[in-house]
Amino acid sequence: METPNIMKRNGYTMIDMVVRLRFGFGCVRTVSAITRECKKYPGEIYFQKSIYNSICPRTYANCTSQEILPQKYNCKKMLETMISVIDHEDRIRVSVEGDDESARRVALRLYSAITSEDDRDLENVNINFNRFEVVEK
């Protein structure tokens, strides 16, 4: 498992990813878990869609600034996240306010959840936010 590319620009920590969740952001349980995780962070967290999505695919996740659509969706608001129509295999950019270690940690936790396939069992949705956590000894 390769650690994702984390970018820092204009006071934000950003990470591009391909959504691997089976129902994208259309499953209430999954989106609820993601919004709960985002609400733990005091700063702003939003995501933006790429012009490349499941209908118009691209072979890699990293996007140039010209490929990111201007509409921002607040990750802390469940309804706003659900109406964003993010599907399985869509490319998105998550931006976390701050460029410190806590912002990096939140970005990695969201990357872990959104790129996982942990929502396959709808009876027992248990999204893994910790695939990239550093375990301190």
Overall SS class: alpha+beta
Q: Which ranges are low-confidence, i.e. pLDDT below 50, for 5 or more consecutive residues?
A: none
- What is the CATH top level name? Alpha Beta
Shape: globular
Give a description of the structure.
The chain is an alpha+beta fold. It has one domain: Histidine-containing Protein, Chain: A. 23% of the residues lie in helices and 18% in strands. It has helices at residues 28-39, 78-82, 101-114, and strands spanning 6-9, 12-18, 45-49, 73-74, 91-97. Strands 1-2-5-3-4 form a 5-stranded antiparallel β-sheet. A hairpin with a 2-residue loop joins strand 1 and strand 2 (12-18). The longest helix is centred in the C-terminal third of the chain and has 14 residues, at 101-114. It is globular and about 35 Å long. The mean pLDDT is 82.
List the helices and strands and how they pair.
Elements: E1 6-9, E2 12-18, H1 28-39, E3 45-49, E4 73-74, H2 78-82, E5 91-97, H3 101-114
Antiparallel strand pairs: 1-2, 2-5, 3-4, 3-5
Give short descriptive properties of this protein.
alpha+beta, single chain, five-stranded antiparallel β-sheet, Histidine-containing Protein, Chain: A
